[in-house]
Description:
There is one protein chain. The chain is an alpha/beta fold. It has three helices and six strands. The chain has a single domain (26-167), classed as 2-Layer Sandwich (Double Stranded RNA Binding Domain). The protein has helices at 2-18, 53-68, 143-167, and strands at residues 36-39, 43-44, 72-73, 80-96, 102-117, 125-136. Strands 1, 2, 3, 4, 5 and 6 form a six-stranded mixed sheet that branches. Helix 2 (53-68) crosses helix 3 (143-167). The two termini are 43 Å apart. The relative contact order is 0.16.
Amino acid sequence: MKKFFYVLFSVGVLLSFLGCGIYSFSGISLSSDVKTFEVRPFVNEAAIVIPSFDRQLTTTLQDFILNQTNLSLTTNKGDIVYEGEIINYFVSPNTATADQTAAENRLTVAVRMRYIDTTNEKNDLERTFSFFFDFPGAAQLSGAVEEEAHEIIIERLTQDMVNETLARW
């Protein structure tokens, strides 16, 4: 009887692994046909242009995909391609004080991204992603505050892009 349960348990474990398909613990599942990816430089079309922001977004997305997958980065003809534009970059007051000044400001960035899967066009996607960073009203968006804002916003945007396209969350 003990041997029967051992065999039954082993078969159950084996079947559960067979049902997983191509899967990684990061949640990213890719077709075996996909070997390379390309991230074209994001173009800054926002009313406020921060010179290094587009380059930082592009390289962070490249690094994120390199670290989370076994895909090879290529400069052209990738099996999957990311491209897009930074369409909004603006600061607005988030909360006010009693004397009508900003107690907190919010930097909001929006990026329109296109994802092209050359191996399966059903996976192609065009979507706008946005995220924000709140900072004290008395602070200026420069120096350490700006660096922290860019780092947090870009990290979240790249995670959202990869989750939507490769993990399909």
